[in-house]
Amino acid sequence: MSAIEEFAERGHERVGIFTDRATGIVAIIAVHDTTLGPGLGGCRMRPYPTLDDALHDALGLSEGMTYKNSLAGLNLGGGKAVLVADRTLTVGREDLFLSFGRCVESMGGAYITAEDMGTTVADMEVIRRVTAHVSGRDPQCGGAGDPSPWTALGLFESMRVCLERVLGTTSFEGKRVVIQGAGAVGRYLAAHLKRAGAVLSFSDAREKALADACREFEADAVSIDEVYATPCDIFSPCAISNILTPDSIARLQCRIVAGAANTQLSTAEDEVRLVNRGILYAPDFVINSGGVILCAEEREPGGYTETRVRERVGRIPETLRRVLEESARVGELPGRTAVRLAKERIAQARRGS
Ligand code: NAD
After folding, report:
1. What pLDDT digit, counting tens, does each position of 73-96 carry?
2. Catalytic amino acids?
3. Which CATH architecture has domain 3-141?
4. Which end of the chain is more exposed for a tag (fewer CB within 10 A), N or C?
5. How far apart are CA 129 and CA 41, in angstroms?
6. Which CATH architecture has domain 148-288+320-341?
7. Which of 71, 115, 117, 202 has most ligand 1 atoms within 8 Å of its beta carbon, as the pocket-test mutant?
8. What DSSP element (H or E) covers 294?
9. C-alpha 288 to ligand 1 mean position (Å)
């Protein structure tokens, strides 16, 4: 399917494709659905093999945000941005984010950006100079700061629900968890797991990040290739999208897949493959909404309060439980149930308006 066909098939409202003239760097902003409110979703910065791959990622990620925001009970729609550049870019970074901020502004409020893989709270402050449509800002400037700890907390508590269903226990003691990605979420997650008595392994594309995380959390290092075949109770994808493929699923040696990475399934059929292998898959957009909840709270008229964020993030495991129970009740895959419940809320809002 071509990217333009995918755009129509997924039902996106609009996509903006921009080039920063100074650097030639391309930015893609995809807005999937704004029925519940403006499309809020992070800005991801990474190189892609082709621009089609970048567009494919932006389309999938923004659709995922529609369902994530809906299920999290937020009055926000789905959007996402992709900056096709290396995350380590330093020279001209400020100008790039000013330029990207103007792209966000040109979407007229249909899209609100935030931090994501490869971008930082400092980048959000730069964007803020040219548009108000940005969240996940520096606490010293009135923002709520890094969303990663909240994403990790919602993920960790959701893992308990999975453990209970699959192993009949809510205890992490002695459970082996393989975390793909020793980045922000991966490390905050590891801290919770370690405290709860889990045994950890990490894999990361960056050697230093991997070594540091392994040292800090007394974890084993696993190579990028070995990560799928490493025996464990929980495999937690906390790096890149589309990693659950026929090949990787065939190699998995786990009982549960629960991670923060967005759009982990490369196609919807991959969820069937996971079920056929006897693996419980916790839909990514159900359990990784802690960060977007923080970003949404930052934009509330009264501003952000930790108590309210904690209370909303605390509801994530309940939502997962509801999805798993409903999916078992109607004999549907959890991912499909989650999308259906998210769409039902959107349809209700459409009928009400
Ligand atoms: P991050 O950029 O801090 O960390 C990602 C890590 O993955 C990096 O250390 C990177 O080197 C590593 N990585 C990249 N390719 C890899 C590969 N092939 N194998 C192993 N490791 C690889 O990002 P993050 O904020 O920790 O987010 C992790 C994932 O969770 C992303 O997919 C992000 O979109 C998603 N997510 C994050 C949040 C949040 O609050 N940060 C919220 C929801 C979803």
Report:
1. 999 999 999 999 999 999 999 999
2. 80
3. 3-Layer(aba) Sandwich (3.40)
4. C
5. 19
6. 3-Layer(aba) Sandwich (3.40)
7. 117
8. helix 290-298
9. 12
